[in-house]
Amino acid sequence: MTQTSTQELRALACTPGGRPQPAPLPAQPAHIIRNEAEALEAARSFAALVAPGALQRDRDRLLPWREVEQFSHSGLWGITIPQEYGGAGVSTGTLTQAVGLIAAADGNLGHIPQNHYYALEVLRVGGSPAQKAFFYDRVLRGERLGNALAEIGHRDFRRRTQLLRESAGWFVQGSKFYCTGALFAHWIPTLASAQEDGGERMSLVFIPRDAPGVTVTDDWDGFGQRVTGSGSVQFERVRVEPEWVVPFTSSFERPTTIGPFAQIIHAALDAGIGHGALQAALPFIREHARPWVDSGVASAAQDPLLLQQLGNVHVRLRAADALVGRAALAVDAAQRAPTDDSVAAASVAVAQAKALSTSASLLAGSKLFELAGTASTLAGQGLDRFWRNARVHTLHDPVRWKYHAVGNYVLNGIRPPRHGAL
Question: Are 231 and 184 within 8 A, CB to CB?
């Protein structure tokens, strides 16, 4: 990849004519968050803002365009940018707390920026100083990164999305699915393959959302996470600049935190959705649920078996929180000093957190109905969204392999593989 200065990158972004250009920067600059306390306060404020509309957005499948604008302009989308580039450089623990707070209010909005943070981590690990300065600056001004990573069943290299390096320029050709956030994005970081030295190499290509040849289709019809903008993206010979291409394969040929960093955000999302289910269950149980006839108590809130079950949900969610917090410390340590051992320890700690956050989130969404009773299943209540969101999001990658990674590490001392899913 050519080493281009920050000034040249900015000039490229404004060059008229045949070369591809990003969209103009947002007219209203985003707020810049300066520290961790401010980040958490912003997350609490945004969660309180969006919680009242979560039911209607899910029920009527109303894409949250206004809420996403408010979200990114709050400054929360820039909080992981290092301080030397103008961001807050918050710890992984603060990021996961912020994500969890928002996911409890609306699992969709908690999910939308997940790949934005992921792409920023790929950029931090593998990008050049000029690339970091360019993209960090645009994010701090309010631009959003989506993703085009997943493909359906394309194990044959020739059928995957390709980065074509031709004499006429560089082009991306292919199609992607489950592209969370792409619909709302200014840039779509896209995983693309190229043949180099007889082997396949992957790059993360930052593609302007409005570039000629890019088609984003709002065709996600899963029963959960319904308004995350997780449609499909088609690239028809989309011209890109070399300066927008960040190495990906090479970032896994050495110990880096890209995998555990990505996965801990998923764990925080799942735990947050579970907390949202619990928070929704409490007032419903107090106000509407009835005690079982054999309990001998006047209200459901006094039912001893109900209290036992509710306590179990609470304990498991708090345990998931604790494992996420513990894993966040391991990720931070590995970011500061990435070695085979530190990255493996972070990956295992995140796998433990992901395993428990998955089961706790699903338990909370299911027990909500068991404890609140039949009235909680009425469509108008919309309480099924918590279980649906948890069930769909926890399928992101199979949790059974998290247990395998932990067991193999504990028993056999085998480090987990390094890739974007662990």
Answer: no
Report how far residue 29's alpha carbon sits from residue 142's, in angstroms, rounded to the nearest whole number.
6
- Please tell me the predicted confidence (pLDDT) of residue 397: 86
User: pTM score, two decimals?
Assistant: 0.92
Instruction: Give the pLDDT confidence of 316-329 residue by residue, as tens digits.
Output: 999 999 999 999 99
Q: What is the pLDDT of residue 4?
A: 40
Q: Provide the pLDDT for residue 198.
A: 72
User: Rounded to an integer, what distance in angstroms lies between the CA atom of residue 98 and that of residue 42?
Assistant: 8
**Mapped to the 3 state alphabet, what secondary structure does the chain carry?**
CCCCCHHHHHHHHCCCCCCCCCCCCCCCCCCCCCCHHHHHHHHHHHHHHHHHHHHHHHHHCCCCHHHHHHHHHCCHHHCCCCHHHCCCCCCHHHHHHHHHHHHHHCHHHHHCCHHHHHHHHHHHHHCCHHHHHHHHHHHHCCCCECCECCCCCCCCHHHCCEEEEECCEEEEEEEEEEECCHHHCCEEEEEEEEEECCEEEEEEEEEECCCCCEEEECCCCCCCCCCCCCEEEEEEEEEECHHHEEECHHHHCCCCCHHHHHHHHHHHHHHHHHHHHHHHHHHHHHHCCCCCHHHCCCCHHHCHHHHHHHHHHHHHHHHHHHHHHHHHHHHHHHHHCCCHHHHHHHHHHHHHHHHHHHHHHHHHHHHHHHHHCHHHHCHHHCCHHHHHHHHHHCCCCCCHHHHHHHHHHHHHCCCCCCCCCC
In the prediction, which pLDDT does 420 show? 73
Centre a 10 Å sphere on the Cβ of residue 223 and count the other Cβ atoms it contains. 12
CB 191 within 8 A of CB 148: yes
Specify the pLDDT at position 335.
Answer: 98
**Strand duo 169-179 + 162-166: pairing:** antiparallel
Q: What is the pLDDT of residue 197?
A: 76
Name residues of the chain where pLDDT drops below 50: 1-17, 422
